[in-house]
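Reading group handout, session on sequence-to-structure problems. Before we discuss, look at one worked example. The prompt was deliberately terse, the way you'd type it at a terminal:

> structure Multidrug export protein EmrB

The input record follows.
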Amino acid sequence: MDQSEIKTGRPPFGILAVLMIGAFISFLNNTLLNVALPSIMADLQVETATVQWLTTGYMLVNGILIPATAFLIQKYSVRRLFLTAMLLFTVGTFVAGLAHVFPMLLAGRMLQASGSAIMMPLLMNVMLVSFPVEKRGTAMGVFGLILMAAPAIGPTLSGWIVEHYDWRMLFHFVTPIAVVVLLTGFFLLKDKKEKVDIHLDLISLVLSSIGFGGLLYGFSSAGNKGWDHPLVYLTIVIGAISLITFISRQSKLQIPMLNFKVFQYPMFALSSSITMVLNMAMFSGMLLLPIYVQTIRGITPFDAGLLMLPGALTMAVMSPITGKLFDKYGGRVLAIIGLSITVITTYLFSTLTTETSYSFLMALNTVRMLGISMVMMPVSTNGLNQLPARFYPHGTAMNNTLNQVSGAIGTALLVTVMSTRQQTHATRIAESTLNNAAGQPTAALVEMQQQVAMTAMLEGINDALFVSSLIAIVALILAFFIKRAKQDEEPLEKESAAPTRVEPKLAES
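And the output record:
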């Protein structure tokens, strides 16, 4: 359908349903794997630095492919892109489920990532062209409800499967669902698209891959290797130079691969800044809380998943509610309230002890997720609402790419803070504790050393969470500048001489 039909016709709910189910299982598979990493390490006999490539590699593929999705969405039909993405994801899931050596598992994971990288920007773009601005918040809320259900049930389901079955069952469980979704899309999706005469600039693709890939790899590796490792700072420097060159080239191309002019729209630029900062803060809970719960408190993976479940369910349930509130009140009030809750709860997380109760952790995490749910989707939607329709593919691709980069930066920063402060606390505690332990039996000294290490780790986690609360305050300050965005309908004379962007014509069978 074209833009005029979107505002008067019925949205393509059948197509949206197929796309959402596809996105749901790709999200679900990603959250399923996190809890299984220790089992994979033991079974395939790999170290922590190696097994993390299942996550880092996934992020790298996303960072490389997502910027190219703006071009792909303009060039190809929804049907073609969806079937390609689902086929890649399905083959990857099948290969990973059969893996008995780590390289085969990593290859399957990379194929999964290549499918997922296309899926999310494609779905977001269809959502934007299918609903008018005044109804978009509610639509995005329902979209959020479906996608938030994946991280809600993922860790708990994964913990149960890993405790009762082989970790490969995580992939065997998803494979038949992926096949059904692929076949459903093949028969149901019948969208039409007029031929668009645009071509991919290969130099831009190479620069984008090196730029975003280098930044993602560098920041992702900093937590393990340290900032002074050549592989870390060299990849970050090379990535930054390539990214600057990429941005410069896009401004000179008649049809850029990824159009950075989206940042000329103030609400989009502001929303991108807020979500990047919040992403950095949000990763503290996702990364540090499981370490605290399982390493320091000794809670099983299944119980750790149960602890996170109410928070994830709260995000899922709140998504359509915040969508309706956004349509009625705008993003500013929701963002201010949500970020205030996020700042307070993140600060309270920075006061953890070895005696903090399980129920308190669950309640605090649930309230924190409530705050985050009031920010992410409303702020992103408000920013996208200001863009002209021809910028939708670029806006969604840009948001997804920046989420990947900010997540990697946030993870690297918080791990660095935790590690550095852990060493400082270990030295301080050891000086005051072990110096007074002269004459103690060897077994007692070993126990005291273990206690010092655990206490130092706990203090390091608390310090990192405190830094995370400071980062969230930055997002809160930015939220006061949010205004309700209205779509900027550019006059035709402002368009370049490039071929006109033709919106996909979507039709349900």
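Points for discussion. First: The chain has a mean pLDDT of 81. Second: The chain has two domains: 3-201+253-494, 202-252.
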